[in-house]
Automatic annotation (TrEMBL):
The keyword Transcription regulation does not apply. This is protein adenylyltransferase. It comes from the Bacteria. Keywords: ATP-binding, Nucleotide-binding, Nucleotidyltransferase, Transferase. GO terms for biological process: regulation of cell division. It comes from Desulfatibacillum aliphaticivorans. InterPro entries: Fido (IPR003812), Fido-like_dom_sf (IPR036597). Residues 55-199 form the Fido domain. It catalyses: L-tyrosyl-[protein] + ATP = O-(5'-adenylyl)-L-tyrosyl-[protein] + diphosphate; L-threonyl-[protein] + ATP = 3-O-(5'-adenylyl)-L-threonyl-[protein] + diphosphate. The keyword ATP-binding applies. GO terms for molecular function: AMPylase activity; ATP binding. Its EC number is 2.7.7.108. Gene3D superfamilies: Fido-like domain.
Length: 203
């Protein structure tokens, strides 16, 4: 779980929730609202982005705002606090802008996904995009869900099914997933992540 700093002005430590536009104090209610927003974001994003759309840094911000904009003022804006999770120190907030500009160049070069790409090529691109976004962790919250949303949009471009989201709540899978992300962080190695995604990607 992402750790919150005691001086984090975006977090309500008394109630254990991020400060939100709706004034929700109950963690379970807020989680439910976020889940509803995610479902809605899938629908809107699928309608908005065409099968031949090359994604960019702007799209990354726009999709995150589409997901959480109704709940948080900072949705679609890069975080200003440092975060850590599962023995990983994500990109320092001060360096996010520069890292995202570099990532945007890669993202535009790797997209759109097309039907003529074979599964190995799909997995290679997916692993790199997913791994880099998670390591940068550009937003205050919702990075994992947003990244899966973006990757599912890319899979749909190539006429693949979205990845099975249930796996990301499986304890065994999560342990392997965190290890794979650590390899991206430590050695810029996407192979474990690609192997983990292989059985989740199908037409």
């Amino acid at each position: 779980m992402v750790k919150y700093d005691v001086n984090d002005s975006s977090f309500d430590h008394k109630h254990g929730v991020l400060i939100n536009k709706l004034g929700i104090k109950d963690p379970e209610e807020l989680q439910s609202r976020e889940k509803d927003r995610l479902v809605n974001a899938y629908k809107k994003a699928a309608e908005k982005y065409s099968e031949n759309h090359a994604f960019s840094e702007k799209d990354v911000c726009d999709i995150h705002k589409l997901f959480l904009g109704d709940l948080y003022e900072w949705a679609g804006e890069y975080r200003t606090v440092d975060l850590s999770s599962e023995n990983i120190r994500f990109c320092h907030a001060a360096y996010i802008n520069n890292h995202m500009k570099d990532f945007s160049i890669e993202l535009e070069a790797l997209t759109p996904f097309t039907e003529d790409l074979n599964k190995e090529q799909i997995l290679g691109r997916l692993g790199k995009i997913h791994g880099e976004l998670i390591i940068i962790h550009p937003f205050r919250d919702g990075n994992g869900r947003f990244t899966r949303l973006l990757c599912d949009l890319l899979l749909m471009q190539a006429n693949y099914l979205p990845m099975a989201v249930s796996e990301f709540y499986n304890t065994v899978f999560l342990k392997k997933y965190h290890e794979a992300i650590q390899e991206v962080w430590r050695a810029v190695d996407y192979s474990k992540l690609i192997s983990l995604f292989d059985p989740l990607v199908s037409r």
